[in-house]
Amino acid sequence: MTAETMVSSLLPTYFVLLLLAISNFLSNGMEQYFVFQNAFNREYIQVLDLYVYNLAMGSGAYSVSTALSILKSVISVVLLFGANGLSKWFRGESIV
Hints:
single chain
């Protein structure tokens, strides 16, 4: 088995793992930040998910927090379609 056939047989697995990594790109473990959040570090520890949570639960701005969550989902879908297009361009076939 040559190196070229080994690499070409690994490409589908690589692109599936790439899609999984991209889908998890904007999720950053908000639970850890939430646990360690206190009055002293509240303005420095903000990540997107924690900001949306604090916005909804603290001030009751449900529409803004919903819009931010939808925007995050749209960005994730655009990134996934971009990776799928990259797979189609690189391998000649798409993943989906």
